[in-house]
Amino acid sequence: MTAADFAGTKTALALASSDVTMREAFVETVTAAMDTDPRIAVVTADISAGNFAEARSRHPERVVNVGIREQAMIGVAGGMALTGLRPVAHSYAPFLIERPFEQIKLDLGHQDVGAVLVSIGASYDDPVWGRTHQAPGDVALIDTLPGWTIHVPGHQDEVRALLSTALAGDDRVYLRLSTRRNSRAHSVEGFTAVRTGSKGVVVAVGPMLDSVLAATSTVDVTVLYAATVRPFDHAGLRAAVGSNANVVLVEPYLRGTSAHKVATALADVPHRLLALGVGREEEVRAYGTAEQHDVVHGLDTAGLHHSITHFLG
Questions:
Q1: Of 2, 67, 227, 261, which one is least surrounded by beta carbons within 10 A?
Q2: Residue 156: DSSP 8-state
Q3: CATH architecture for segment(s) 191-312
Q4: Whole-number percent of the chain with pLDDT over 90
C-alpha cells in the first residue's frame, strides 16, 4: 500500500465513522462481540429488534425480543444474569429506565447481578413523538440506586470504547445514547481538560461539549469534558478548580443532577456552582424540534453564553 493509498483509507474510515450514529455503533459493537463472547445476550422490547437481525441469525438463543413488555425485558435480563450471561437490554430511555424502574431496582440491584442498559432518545431527541419518548430524569433516577456506572458519550467512537469495556465486565452499566453528538471523540477516562482558563471551570457532559466550547469561545474558563458521570471524577474536578472555585455544570438531562457530586468533591473548598440542564420548573408541552427545546432550556449556544458570563460576572 502506497502512502497515498494509506491516506485515502484513513480518510474513508474517518468519513465512515462520521456517518455512523451512536445507535449504529452500539448495534455493530454488540453484534461483533457476540461472536467472540458466549456470555453476551440481547433483550429488546420491539424497539430496535430489527437491528439485531444479523446477531439473531448467528445466535438465535441469545437474542430475545419480548414485545412491548419493558418490565419483562428487565426481568428476563436479570434471569439471564443469574445464569452467568451478560445481558444487554435496550429501548428508548423512558421505556428502559422509567417504566421498569422497579425491576431495575429489584431484579438487577437487589439480586446484585450485572447488566448493560443502553438507551436512545436522551432527554428530547425526538420531540415529534411527544412526552412519552422524553426522559430528562433518567440519570437522576438511576442515581438513586447504588452500584451503577453511568456513561453519557458525546461521539459514536466513545460509544464503542465504553461499550467494549462494559460488555467485558460484570457490573451494572447504563449507557445513554443520543442523536446529538460532538464533532470529534475525546477520552472517556475521567474528566478531560479540553481548554484551560483562569476565571472558572465548566464541566460539559457528553453531547453538550461542542455547544459549551462555542458558548465560551471568548470566555477565560477551563472546560472539562465528561463521558462518564458515575463514578464522578472528584479528583479531576478538584485538580482543575484549584483555588478558583467558580464551577458551571452543563448536563444534557435534568438540571443539577450531579450538583451533589460537585459539592462532595469540593466539600472543603468554598465554591460557587451554576447548574445548567433541562429545566425542573415546568414541563415543556410543545413538540417542535430538539434545537427549539434547547432554546427553551437555555442549552443553545446563546443561552449557555448568557448564563455562564452572567454567573462569572
A1: 2
A2: H
A3: 3-Layer(aba) Sandwich (3.40)
A4: 91
